[in-house]
Amino acid sequence: MQQPNRLSPFFENLNFEREDNTMVINFGPQHPSAHGQLRLMLELDGEQVVKAYPDIGYLHRGIEKMAENMTYNEFLPTTDRLDYIASTSNNYAYALAVEKLIGLEVPRRAQVIRTILLEVNRVISHLFFIATHALDVGAMSVFLYAFREREFGMDLMEDYCGARLTHSAVRIGGVPLDIPDGWMIALRKWCDKVDYELKHTYNALLEENRIWKMRLENVGVLSPEDALSWGCTGPMLRGSGIAYDIRKEEPYELYSELDFDIPVADTNDSYGRYRLYMAEIEESTKIIRQLILKYDETEPQLMAHAPQYISAPKEEIMTQNYALMQHFVLVTQGMRPPKGEVYVPTESPKGELGFYIKSEGEPYAYRLKCRAPSFFHTGLLQELLVGTYIADVVTIIGSTNIVFGEVDR
Amino acid sequence: MRKYVPKDNVQAKAYYTDRFHVVPSVLTQDVSTDEIFSKHLEILSSKVEIKSAYIQIGQMRVEINHQDNYRAIEILKNECGYEMMSEMSAVDYLAKDGTFEVFYQLLNLKERKRVRVVCRIEQGLAVESIVPLYKAANFSEREMYDMFGIVANNHPFMKRILMPDDWEGHPLLKSYPLQGDEFASWYEVDKIFGKEARDAIGPENRDPARIDRYDTKRFSRVGREVPFGADISDGEPETPIEYSTTFLVDYNASQTQLEDRK
After folding, report:
1. Which ipTM score applies to this complex?
2. Where are the domains of chain B?
C-alpha cells in the first residue's frame, strides 16, 4: 500500500491491489527508456498489458503561447526546442510556413544549403533512433558506434552554424551563412563514412541478429487503417505499407529536382520500421551527394530580397541609409505578414511536422499551432500497447521514435 | 493615470502602428479554379450548409456551422477520401466577437489534397467529438479542451492532457497572461504546503532557483566562498521561514476513502 505524504500525495489512479487481479504500474516519467518525460500507466494482467494510458505534459513549456507573444523572427530559435534531435527541421518548417504566408521566393543557394542541412539532420536523427532503439532493446554496442557517426554529423553542424543541438541554422527568407571552406569535403567524407558504417557495422550487428529479430519481429504491429486513423506519419506510416512521403508527394524546397526513393515496409512491425530507418539514411546520403554538385552552380545570394519583411545584407545595412532604416523597423517592430492563415506540412525525420499560422497582420502571430508527429504517435501508444507483453513495451516506445520536446511543446 | 490594458486580450501587441497602415490580405482563389476541390465541395454542399469556401495557399478552407462538424467531416472522409486528420485545434476570438474558431486539417493521401474545415462556436458551447472518425482526434480534442476549455461531446476521455488535472484556467486563451496567473504562480506552494503558507513563504521564496545572499551551504556565491557556517550577515537579522502546521492531505481520511471505494 502506498504511504502518502505531503511531497508525494496519494494518487488515486495508482491502486496497486485490485480485486480483478490486474496490477497498475507506473512507467516513467523518469525512466531511461521513456525517451524523455513519458509517463505511462499500464494495467497488467500477469505480464500482458490490458490498458495503457500515456500521460504527457512533463515538458510542457507553452511554446505555442510564446509564439503569440514574440515577433516572427524572435520565435525562430524557440523552434529549436521542439524536436531537439533534429532542430533544423523545426526551424525550416517554421520558416517555410512564414515564407508561404508572405509569399517569399528563397534564393537558390539558400535552398541548396537548407536541403543539405535538412538531410544532415535527418541522418543525425535516424542515427540517434537506431542507437537508442538498440540500446533500449539491449544491443549496447550499436549505440556506441552510431553515436560516433552522429557526433561527426553534429561537428558538421557546428562548423556550419556554431551550435551542435539547437542550430537555428535557417532564417525566414533564406539562410544566415554560406558554407565554410572545406565543409563540402568533410560532408562528402561523412556521407561515405555513414554509408560504410551502415553497411558494415550497424547492419552487421543488427540485421540478422537473432536476438534483435526476436525482439522486434511481430512486435508493435500497426495496421494501415490504424496508422491513418491515428494520424501516423513518417516512418510509422510508411512502416505500415503506405508510401506517403511529403518530400515526394507535396515537394517543397529542391526535393522535386532530386532523385531519391521512398522506402516502404509492409511487415507493419518494429523490425520493418527499423529497416526503413536504415534505408532512409542511405537515401539521405544519396540526396546530399546530389546537392553538393548543385551547390557549385548557384549564385552567392543567401537571403531573399523583400525589404518589407527581410533585413538587407549586413554590407548594405552598414552603407545604405534606407537599408538601415528598414532593418531598424524590422528589428524593433518585427515583420507584419498579411492577414490570412496557412498550414504548411514538411517531412521531418519523425513524420509530418507542420505549422499552422493565423496572422491578423500584426507583428505577432495571432495563433500558431505546431503539428508535431510525435504527439500523435504518443496517442497511438494507448492502443498499440494493449495486448503486448511488458517486455515489449520499451521496444514499441522506441520504435515510435517520440521526442518529448515536440510532444509537450 | 495608469495605462489601460484590455483584460480580454493580454498578449503582446505592436507598440507602434502607422496610422495609415492598411493590412493586406493573403490572396485567395475561388474553389472553382481547382477541379478536385470543386468536386469535393459539391459533394459536401449537397448535404451540409456551407458558410464560405475558398482556396488559400493551395488548401481549401471550408466554413460550416458548428452543429454540422461531425456530418461534414464524415462526408469528407467517406466520400471524398480525406483519410487522415493531420491536426485540429482552435483559435480564440473571444475578445473580438465572443467565439472560438475550431479548425480541422484533413489530408487526402491519394489526390494529395488538404482541406481545412472551420467552424465558429460561442464560449460555453461544445463541439461534437470526431473520435469515431479519426482516432487522432482523441489527443487533439483533449489538448483543445486543456488549452481553450472547449469540450468535445462524446469524447471517450475528456480530461486535461498537458496541464495537471487540478489546474485552473486555460493557458492559450487570449485573456491568460504569458507569465501565468495568480493560481499558476502559487501552484506548487498551494499543493505542498497549503494556501495559508503563501504569506510565510512569500513570493521571493517561491522560486527554488533563487540565490540567497547569506547562503553558506549551497555555494551560490561563486568566487566568494566562506567557511561553512560563517556569519556573513553583517548584523542583519535573518528572517526565519515559518512553515504551516496544518496538513493539506488528511491521511486518515484518504485511507478511509480508499477502503470505501473497495
Report:
1. 0.86
2. 28-153, 186-261
